[in-house]
Specification:
207 residues, alpha/beta, seven-stranded mixed beta sheet, two-stranded antiparallel ribbon, 6 helices, 9 strands
């Protein structure tokens, strides 16, 4: 059985596109059944339209009451029988009720070797700027499960790359994105093949 996957994205959704590519090539035993976005004009929504993937816009404009908005997430995810949630550049905090219901079923990709350069305020180009400013020798990307604390959930996969002397935040971001596109599908594949076990907050991928 294919696992039912819901993607959350606010921007271009490049990881969303890459994972869809893996699914189309039968490398992941999953199916993306829905995109949830807060931004109706983003590239991820356009990609969903082009690929006949359902999408739902949930944002402060449409749901002015926080409680109603959080309950809407719950209703929508339940109606699609969601088994895995993937955050792919989603710029809003996931509500606590969703984190509780989908414990160890929400994945995120972060552009650093967590726990370094993680937490509130560390996202996108801000991470790469800090890494270069602090003259770090290495950086990378991390796939982790989402818990109630920013970037603190159990780590699934990490991959390190060397920071080059010639790197700018932009060039570094480009190289880290390639790593993201490599390790995120791996993590999703492992989950959808039931090869992930968690013990004492440590993730193991069973070959």
């Amino acid at each position: 059985m294919l696992k039912k996957i819901v993607v959350f994205a606010s921007g271009t959704g490049s990881n969303f596109r890459k994972i869809k590519e893996f699914i189309d090539n039968k490398k992941i035993k999953g199916s993306i059944v829905l995109l949830i976005s807060n931004n109706p004009k983003c590239g991820a929504v356009e990609f969903s339209k082009l690929n006949n993937i359902d999408y739902k816009i949930i944002n402060d404009f449409r749901y002015k009451n926080e409680e109603n908005k959080n309950y809407e997430y719950e209703l929508v995810l339940k109606s699609y029988k969601t088994e895995l949630i993937l955050l792919a550049g989603f710029m809003k905090k996931i509500p606590d009720n969703i984190i509780s219901i989908y414990k160890n079923k929400i994945m995120n990709i972060h552009p650093s070797m967590l726990p370094k350069y993680g937490g509130s305020g560390y996202y996108g180009m801000k991470v790469h700027r800090e890494i270069i400013k602090n003259k770090e020798n290495n950086t990378g990307a991390t796939v982790h499960f989402v818990n109630e604390h920013y970037d603190k959930g159990p780590i699934i996969i990490q991959k390190k790359i060397k920071v080059q002397n010639s790197d700018t935040p932009k060039s570094l971001a480009s190289r880290v994105l390639k790593v993201e596109h490599e390790i995120y599908p791996k993590a999703v594949k492992a989950f959808c093949s039931n090869k992930i076990t968690i013990k004492d907050n440590q993730v193991k991928i069973n070959e």
